[in-house]
Write a structure and sequence with these properties.
CATH architecture of the largest domain: 3-Layer(aba) Sandwich
CATH superfamily of the largest domain: Type I PLP-dependent aspartate aminotransferase-like (Major domain)
Strand content: 15-25%
Largest sheet: 7 strands, mixed
CATH topology of the largest domain: Aspartate Aminotransferase, domain 2
Shape: globular
Strand order of the largest sheet: 1-7-6-5-4-2-3
Number of helices: 10
Radius of gyration: 22 Å
Length: about 375
């Protein structure tokens, strides 16, 4: 292929991506990030193969940055440095797989419990690791049905319980109540259990919101998976945290790389820890807190504007996922909305500001005959 052809192909693809990024609303990606300051590192191979805390025999890695990122998350989720272990994953799915893998190793005969609204990676983990899987009914808001959960737990008291809790479900942003689950375990005298928390998108939102449920290692959880989607990264990635004592049960020394095999993948991306480190250093706790609060406020704004026009919609507390009646295929395609049955949702990320929300509302309400023309819809305040 000639250099001119290559240049044209790349230019056309760049234009396509730029255009589609303007109307990306249905999936949890922060598109407001600029990583040009660390772009020069993409001219080098960075491979974090093996354990993030063991210096390998090769030098092209970013372990220093990975360790600092993990320390940030350990502090955020209140687990002492000498008790935790974790690594930067390829995304939320790998974090969930790791939690399920550890649980299976600790309780080989355990039964997995997860709700209907759990991410599909949980069912995938059950298949991969051959774990008996009991699916728990969900409430209408996406939260786990505690009565059904207790019924299943009661029927299987003789088996250890492996529990996946959703800290913000994929579709509706519902948060399973950890305290209520712990009460059920105690009431049914379940002593052997492993609790994995799929925090995914909400893992970097809830810790910064006043009054939000605080899920951390001060309570008896065993692992947590967090996606980097809220931070924003050009490469999918995330973090998994767990207790060091669980990892010590599975680690294996690998002479070939001079490290220990403690992760799911062998070779691991060394650029993603650098990306996460740069984001945390340049934005900090205060910046992330501002972003989290702004996204929640804008989600409330979108929800309220739909609600006052009696357009079917819902929004869970402390969530930036606004669920509403499925619109036309034209709008679904244009705004890249995620759909499920008769519903769709918009995930209000940093790049979905009030102006963009108003543009969407005008198009939706005009299509539904709830506006006479686009001029009828003006910027409205968030109701208090």
């Amino acid at each position: 292929m000639s250099s001119n052809r290559v240049g044209k192909e790349l230019a056309d693809f760049l234009l396509q991506i730029e255009e589609r990024s303007q109307f990306h609303a249905g999936y949890p990606y922060n598109l407001s990030c600029d990583y040009s300051a660390i772009g020069k590192f993409f001219n080098f191979l960075l491979n974090n193969a093996g354990d993030p805390y063991v210096e390998p025999d090769f030098g092209l890695h970013s372990r220093k940055f990975e360790q600092e990122v993990l320390s940030f998350f350990a502090q955020l989720y209140k687990i002492p440095e000498n008790q935790f272990w974790g690594y930067v994953t390829a995304g939320g799915t790998e974090g969930n797989l790791y939690g399920m893998f550890l649980a299976r190793e600790i309780y080989p005969n355990g039964i997995l419990y997860s709700s209907q609204d759990s991410h599909y990676s949980i069912a995938k983990a059950a298949k991969l690791f051959r774990i008996q899987h009991n699916v728990v009914n969900s409430q209408i808001n996406g939260e786990i049905n505690y009565e059904h959960f207790e019924q299943l737990i009661s029927e299987n008291r003789s088996s250890p319980a492996i529990i996946n809790l959703n800290i913000g479900t994929t579709v509706k942003g519902a948060i399973d109540n950890l305290d209520q689950v712990l009460e059920i375990l105690e009431r049914n005298q379940i002593k052997d259990y492993y609790i994995h928390c799929d925090a995914a998108l909400s893992g970097l939102i809830l810790p910064f919101l006043d009054g939000a449920p605080q899920i951390n290692f001060e309570k008896p959880i065993d692992s947590i998976a967090i996606s980097a989607k809220f931070i924003g990264s050009p490469l999918p990635c995330g973090v998994v945290l767990t207790k060091k004592k669980w990892v010590e049960k599975i680690e294996t020394a690998i002479e070939y790389i001079g490290s220990k095999d403690t992760t799911i993948l062998g070779s691991r991306n060394g650029h993603t820890p650098l990306i996460l480190w740069y984001a945390l250093q340049t934005r900090g706790d205060d910046g992330l807190a501002r972003e989290a609060k702004t996204c929640i406020q804008n989600a409330q704004y979108l929800f309220q504007q739909l609600k006052i026009r009696e357009y079917p919609c819902m929004l869970n507390n402390f969530s930036n996922i606004v669920v509403f009646q499925k619109p036309s295929q034209k709008l679904i395609k244009k705004w890249q909305l995620a759909i499920f049955e008769n519903w769709a949702h918009i995930i209000v990320m940093q790049n979905i500001d009030r102006e963009k929300i108003n543009t969407f509302l005008n198009e939706l309400l005009l299509e539904e005959g709830l506006l006479n023309n686009a001029e009828d819809f003006q910027l409205q305040p968030v109701l208090r």
